[in-house]
């Protein structure tokens, strides 16, 4: 019972993010991490890495049928990203609020995408859209020994 309770409490407190190649190229790593931690997220895991085309194809395979899939794979594998697992109560939803709408033109004032994204495709940051995907995406980039 205690173990189940612990899992219930833990559920929903982690999300996965990437600072995408555009934001890394444009020198925004520091500012974005500052905004994330100032908003109450704790960094559980983090690294500078680059996805291969195959990695990006796999990571975004749910979008394989979308017209922008090829462009998305090309973009996400063109340079380094910062991958991170973040912890906060209600992490997935709160992080989606912090980053703003997919298209920076629609993103609320002060959100990370409003401030740093350049287009609907090159939109500076990724944020998991569910607890289940947060787990899958975190495990895609990190081993258990890299999570703290
Ligand atoms: P999300 O990242 O806000 O959850 P999704 O619809 O899941 O948005 O799309 C995943 C990613 O695919 C977006 O973050 C963006 O990089 C890219 N993307 C989405 N829509 C378009 C588009 O219309 N053109 C080009 N790229 C797009």
Automatic annotation (TrEMBL):
<comment type="subunit">
    <text>Homotetramer.</text>
</comment>
<protein>
    <recommendedName>
        <fullName>Nucleoside diphosphate kinase</fullName>
        <ecNumber>2.7.4.6</ecNumber>
    </recommendedName>
</protein>
<feature type="binding site">
    <location>
        <position position="113"/>
    </location>
    <ligand>
        <name>ATP</name>
    </ligand>
</feature>
<keyword id="KW-0808">Transferase</keyword>
<keyword id="KW-0546">Nucleotide metabolism</keyword>
<keyword id="KW-0418">Kinase</keyword>
<feature type="domain" description="Nucleoside diphosphate kinase-like">
    <location>
        <begin position="12"/>
        <end position="146"/>
    </location>
</feature>
<keyword id="KW-0597">Phosphoprotein</keyword>
<keyword id="KW-0479">Metal-binding</keyword>
<dbReference type="GO" id="GO:0046872">
    <property type="term" value="F:metal ion binding"/>
</dbReference>
<feature type="binding site">
    <location>
        <position position="123"/>
    </location>
    <ligand>
        <name>ATP</name>
    </ligand>
</feature>
<dbReference type="GO" id="GO:0006241">
    <property type="term" value="P:CTP biosynthetic process"/>
</dbReference>
<dbReference type="GO" id="GO:0006183">
    <property type="term" value="P:GTP biosynthetic process"/>
</dbReference>
<dbReference type="GO" id="GO:0004550">
    <property type="term" value="F:nucleoside diphosphate kinase activity"/>
</dbReference>
<feature type="binding site">
    <location>
        <position position="68"/>
    </location>
    <ligand>
        <name>ATP</name>
    </ligand>
</feature>
<keyword id="KW-0963">Cytoplasm</keyword>
<dbReference type="GO" id="GO:0005524">
    <property type="term" value="F:ATP binding"/>
</dbReference>
<keyword id="KW-0460">Magnesium</keyword>
<comment type="similarity">
    <text>Belongs to the NDK family.</text>
</comment>
<feature type="binding site">
    <location>
        <position position="102"/>
    </location>
    <ligand>
        <name>ATP</name>
    </ligand>
</feature>
<feature type="binding site">
    <location>
        <position position="96"/>
    </location>
    <ligand>
        <name>ATP</name>
    </ligand>
</feature>
<feature type="active site" description="Pros-phosphohistidine intermediate">
    <location>
        <position position="126"/>
    </location>
</feature>
<dbReference type="GO" id="GO:0005737">
    <property type="term" value="C:cytoplasm"/>
</dbReference>
<dbReference type="GO" id="GO:0006228">
    <property type="term" value="P:UTP biosynthetic process"/>
</dbReference>
<keyword id="KW-0547">Nucleotide-binding</keyword>
<keyword id="KW-0067">ATP-binding</keyword>
<feature type="binding site">
    <location>
        <position position="20"/>
    </location>
    <ligand>
        <name>ATP</name>
    </ligand>
</feature>
<comment type="function">
    <text>Major role in the synthesis of nucleoside triphosphates other than ATP. The ATP gamma phosphate is transferred to the NDP beta phosphate via a ping-pong mechanism, using a phosphorylated active-site intermediate.</text>
</comment>
């Amino acid at each position: 019972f205690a173990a189940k309770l612990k899992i219930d409490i833990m559920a929903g407190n982690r999300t996965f993010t990437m600072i995408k190649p555009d934001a890394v190229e444009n020198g925004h790593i520091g500012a974005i991490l500052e905004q994330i931690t100032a908003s109450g997220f704790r960094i559980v895991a983090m690294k500078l890495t680059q996805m291969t085309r195959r990695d990006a194809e796999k990571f975004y395979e749910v979008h394989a049928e979308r017209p922008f899939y090829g462009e998305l794979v090309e973009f996400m594998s063109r340079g380094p990203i910062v991958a991170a697992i973040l912890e906060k109560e209600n992490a997935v939803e709160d992080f989606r609020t912090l980053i703003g709408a997919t298209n920076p033109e629609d993103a609320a004032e002060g959100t990370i995408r409003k401030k740093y994204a350049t287009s609907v495709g090159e939109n500076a940051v990724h944020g998991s859209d569910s607890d289940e995907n947060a787990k899958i995406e975190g495990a895609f980039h990190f081993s258990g020994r890299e999570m703290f």
